[in-house]
Amino acid sequence: SSGGSYTVKAGDSVWLIADQNGITMNQLRDWNNIQNDFVYPGQELTVSNGSSSNNSNSNSSSNSNNSSGGSYTVKAGDSVWLIADQNGITMNQLRDWNNIQNDFVYPGQKLTVSKGSSSNNSNNNSSSSSHNSSGGSYTVKAGDSVWLIADKNGITMDQLRDWNNIQNNFVYPGQKLTVSNGSSSSNNSSSSNTQHKVKSGDSLWMISQEYDISVSRLKSINNLNSDTIFIGQNLKVS
Fold it and tell me: Could you tell me whether strands 110-112 and 133-134 are parallel, antiparallel, or unpaired per DSSP bridges?
């Protein structure tokens, strides 16, 4: 980016551009009037509104946005990731409670976003793992992204990129990807480091992926009450 603007390149998404520029997806949508999360290569986007002082609390303002009493009404541009994030639950919980297939949600749909009891969180992960995969490989389908494929197969985005030499997070329908390297011992970033220093563009979700722990565990071992973190903060990661 230069001077608060960013040129979209192939494989970019609203999530990726917001993350790279340290802003929220909602800010990116609002400042550029983005509908349905559609961006195209070569498009010039505003990625800074001149005053960044209110960045950190934009997250919380959108939290209770559309939710009431444990239910949430989907609005244009929403995704499974965004709704789960806004309501402080995992994507698997959202999928399970609402029987969501292929991460498809539509505007106006009413979703359950609170179950009263969250005791069976942790073992939902493995169920969607082998969704489209066989023997450690996965075939990309329309609408997939690096983030989504990594999440479905229980690996980090970095692992997926490294094993498949993915550039600029670009994947295409029909592409065959390796989603398991036979041994998971290579994920050694977590063993050597018990702390992570937050840098520009980091989010709890990204840090949780990097060290292979859940966001809820990351929050609990660091006594965080919200998803807000700040640059320079030291977080425990094991």
Answer: unpaired
Instruction: Say how far apart CA 201 and CA 182 lie, in whole Å.
Output: 31
Please write the tens of the pLDDT for every residue from 121-165: 444 444 444 445 556 888 888 888 888 898 888 888 888 888 888
* CB 14 within 8 Å of CB 29: yes
Least confident of 26-30, 54-58, 172-176, 199-203: 54-58
Whether residues 135 and 180 share a domain: the answer is yes
Among candidate residues 143, 202, 172, the one with its CA nearest the CA of residue 18: 202
DSSP of 46-79: E---S--TTSTTHHHHHHTTTEETTEEE--TT--
Contact (Cβ atoms closer than 8 angstroms) between residue 220 and residue 208: no
- Report the candidate in 87, 89, 91, 21 with the shortest Cα–Cα distance to residue 59: 87
Residue-level pLDDT at 117: 52
Last residue of a domain, one of 150, 165, 186: 186
Our count of domains for the chain comes to 4
Please provide the DSSP assignment of 86-108 as one string. Answer: HTT--HHHHHHHHT-STT---TT
176 and 202 in a single domain? The answer is: no
Beta strands in 94-181 (DSSP E): 110-112, 133-134, 137-139, 176-178
Q: Are 131 and 102 in contact (CB under 8 A)?
A: no
Helix 157-164 / helix 204-211 crossing angle, nearest 10 deg: 60
Assign residue 90 the CATH number of its domain.
3.10.350.10
Residue 219 CB neighbour total at 10 angstroms: 18
